[in-house]
Every structure is written in structure tokens, then in C-alpha cells.
């Protein structure tokens, strides 16, 4: 295993302060031990160079990122956890599979097909889809249906801005998304853990809500493969599985589209999948969650704490029925 060396002069203060040096240090020590580097050397290296050594494999910095309108001030989950503990069944069902295996995904060049009831259908290059927009940082709480959560500084674009450019027709009531299918790049697709492609969908008003983004990075850097490079959805008031990764198709449709987890287990996962502490999963409680890195659990909030922004979307709906 190689450790990439960088001059200590290259380091940006933000690289040290925005990420957990402690985690970097742990990771470096593990790497050093694995590489057969005497652990006795580690204490001689200052925290900055330790962070640098661990930073060797991180993505490229994204330019021109502006602060977005929504940013929780809770502690951000360290980069190392956001990129090491993932659900991305295209690379296996284990939480560490994506980090270990997603290097075979080739996020560039990348094309997204836009079809259905759109005034501007077509096959868009990543650049055509993304470049006309300003990149924003959105620091969101993310809540997995498995009752763990993270705080992620995403970089992305309001989905509403992209949808407006694609000119959906009046009869477009839902937006459907699809993930890439290519077992060469996504070895987990050789197995039938789920039906491929992974598909998801939103009602048009959910898709147009200002909280909903198409994310292209995190911590100011390009999206790591395991987090859904190069483009993934982020819908912070819904359980994590709605936030579909590595999107290759956006389709405007009239009827509610099928969704992967609803098809896999309809009794357990509905279309809406709003975070709701009062509606338990048939096999476990949803009242609490463990924030990655915390010891104690915390209470889960209705709509994951975003009720003020989104509760109106569901006025008059029985959310125990439309789960
Ligand atoms: N294509 C695809 N998208 C996916 C998944 C997946 O298996 N395949 N897992 C989902 C689930 S269950 C969660 S919790 C989030 C995890 O995102 P993260 O790894 O960036 O934290 O991705 C979601 N998007
Ligand atoms: Mo999830």
C-alpha cells in the first residue's frame, strides 16, 4: 500500500480545521501499521502532516462554492465517517463495501438522460447539466431508515433550478430518478440484493422544495464514489434511501413512479418515507437515532427537523398511512 507524500507547505488551514484531525490520525496509524511503517515514528509527526498523509486519497476541491440558505450548526460528521460508513448496494450490502469497492466507478465522463414530459428532453453531459448553476454548500442532517444519522456538508444545486431549465409539462406530477446499471463498474449488481437499476421518485412539489438538491460533492470537494459520484439526490427530511446515488436518468411522469425499497418490501417502505418518529418500522422503532460518532441515542425529529420547511407539503395527509 502506498502513502502519498505531499509537501507540508501545500496544506490549507481549512484542511486541518474542517475535518477531524483525531480521526485522520487514527486512520493514519492504521495505514502506517498496515504498510509496515514502524508505529514508533507516528508520534514524531505533527497532527498537520498526519492529516495530510490521510488526505492523500481525497477528491478535488470544487471551485466557487457559496454558502446555501440551509445549514445546521450541529457538529459536522467527520469526512472519514461520511465516506467510510455507507449504503450503496451496487457495491455490496455491507457498510464498508462502498468505500472499499467503489473505486471501479468512473464518474467522468457522465451523462444524464432527461425524458418523459419535459420541454427540454435529451442526453445531458454532466457539464451541461451542472455548470450553468452556482454550487452551494448545504449542511444537512441525514437520517437513515436504519436509525443512524450524520451531518453532511453537501455541495449541490437546488433541484428546482435544474427542473425549471428542463421545462416539465403541466401533466408532470412526479420526477423519477435512476442509478447507473453497469456490473463492470458496480460489482454488486452481479447479485440480486435489489432489482437494478435502483430507482427513486419525488412528487413534483417535493422535488421543487428549496431543501431538495442535486449534490455533486461534500466538504468542498468532488463527490466521493461511495457517496454517489458524480450526481446524487439529497432530500434531508426523508429517510436516506430516497437520496438516490449516481443518477443517470431524470424522468418527468404523470403517475407515482415505482421505488426500489417499496418494491423490495412494500410493507416496510412507502413512497413518501418522511422521517417520522411516531411511525415505527415494522421491525424497529424510529423514535430515536444514533448520530455516527455519538455514544448515546438522540430523539428523532418529525421531518428530521425540517418540519418548518416541508410540513405544509403533507397537510391533510394521514402520514401513518402514507409512510
Ligand atoms: N443507487 C443507490 N442509492 C442509494 C442507496 C443504494 O443502495 N443505491 N442507498 C441509500 C441509503 S439506504 C442511504 S442511507 C443513503 C446513504 O448515503 P451516504 O452513503 O452518502 O451516506 O444512500 C441512499 N442512496
Ligand atoms: Mo438508509
**Second CATH tier, the architecture:** Alpha-Beta Complex
CATH topology: the name is Sulfite Oxidase, Chain A, domain 2
Number of helices: 10
Evaluate the radius of gyration: 20 Å
Detailed description of the structure:
This protein is α+β, with helices and mostly antiparallel strands and 323 residues long. The protein has a single domain (61-314), classed as Sulfite Oxidase, Chain A, domain 2, CATH 3.90.420.10. It is 20% helix and 22% strand. The chain is built from ten helices and 13 strands. It has helices spanning 13-17, 21-34, 47-54, 79-82, 97-101, 126-130, 159-166, 204-208, 260-264, 307-310, and strands at residues 65-71, 111-116, 122-125, 135-143, 148-158, 174-179, 199-203, 213-218, 221-222, 232-234, 247-253, 288-291, 298-299. The strands form two sheets. Strands 1, 4, 5, 8, 9, 10, 12 and 13 form an eight-stranded mixed beta sheet that branches. Strand 2 (111-116) and strand 3 form a beta hairpin. Helix 2 (21-34) crosses helix 3. The radius of gyration is 20 Å and the shape is globular. Mean pLDDT is 87; it is low at 1-56. Residues 87, 144-146, 239-241 line the site of molybdenum atom.
Keywords:
323 residues; globular; binds molybdenum atom; single chain; five-stranded mixed β-sheet; Sulfite Oxidase, Chain A, domain 2; 13 strands; alpha+beta; eight-stranded mixed β-sheet; binds the ligand Nc1nc2c(c(=O)[nH]1)N[C@H]1C(S)=C(S)[C@@H](COP(=O)(O)O)O[C@H]1N2; 10 helices
Amino acid at each position: 500500500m502506498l502513502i502519498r507524500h505531499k509537501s507540508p507547505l501545500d496544506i490549507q488551514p481549512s484542511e486541518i480545521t474542517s475535518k477531524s484531525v483525531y480521526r485522520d490520525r487514527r486512520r493514519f496509524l492504521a495505514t502506517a501499521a498496515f504498510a509496515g511503517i514502524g508505529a514508533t515514528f507516528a508520534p514524531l509527526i505533527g497532527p498537520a502532516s498526519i492529516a495530510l498523509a490521510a488526505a492523500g486519497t481525497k477528491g478535488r476541491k470544487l471551485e466557487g462554492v457559496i454558502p446555501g440558505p440551509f445549514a445546521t450548526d450541529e457538529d459536522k460528521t467527520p469526512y472519514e465517517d461520511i465516506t467510510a460508513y455507507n449504503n450503496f448496494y451496487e457495491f455490496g450490502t455491507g457498510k464498508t463495501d462502498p468505500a472499499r469497492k467503489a473505486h471501479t466507478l468512473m464518474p467522468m465522463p457522465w451523462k444524464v438522460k432527461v425524458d418523459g414530459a419535459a420541454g427540454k428532453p435529451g442526453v445531458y453531459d454532466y457539464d451541461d447539466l451542472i455548470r450553468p448553476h452556482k454550487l452551494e454548500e448545504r449542511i444537512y442532517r441525514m437520517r437513515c431508515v436504519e436509525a443512524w444519522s450524520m451531518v453532511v456538508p453537501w455541495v449541490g444545486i437546488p433541484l428546482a433550478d435544474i427542473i425549471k431549465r428542463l421545462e416539465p409539462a403541466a401533466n408532470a406530477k412526479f420526477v423519477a430518478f435512476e442509478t447507473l446499471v453497469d456490473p463492470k463498474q458496480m460489482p454488486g449488481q452481479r447479485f440480486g440484493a435489489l432489482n437494478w437499476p435502483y430507482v427513486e421518485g419525488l412528487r413534483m412539489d417535493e422535488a421543487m422544495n428549496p431543501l431538495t438538491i442535486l449534490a455533486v460533492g461534500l466538504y468542498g470537494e468532488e463527490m466521493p464514489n461511495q457517496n454517489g459520484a458524480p450526481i446524487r439526490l439529497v432530500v434531508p427530511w426523508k429517510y436516506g434511501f430516497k437520496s438516490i446515488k449516481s443518477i443517470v436518468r431524470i424522468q418527468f411522469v404523470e403517475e407515482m413512479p415505482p421505488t426500489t425499497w417499496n418494491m423490495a418490501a412494500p410493507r416496510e417502505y412507502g413512497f413518501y418515507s418522511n422521517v417520522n418518529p411516531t411511525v415505527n418500522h415494522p421491525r424497529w422503532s424510529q423514535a430515536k437515532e444514533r448520530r455516527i460518532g455519538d455514544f448515546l441515542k438522540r430523539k428523532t425529529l418529525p421531518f428530521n427537523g425540517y418540519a418548518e420547511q416541508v410540513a405544509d407539503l403533507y397537510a391533510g395527509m394521514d402520514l401513518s398511512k402514507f409512510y
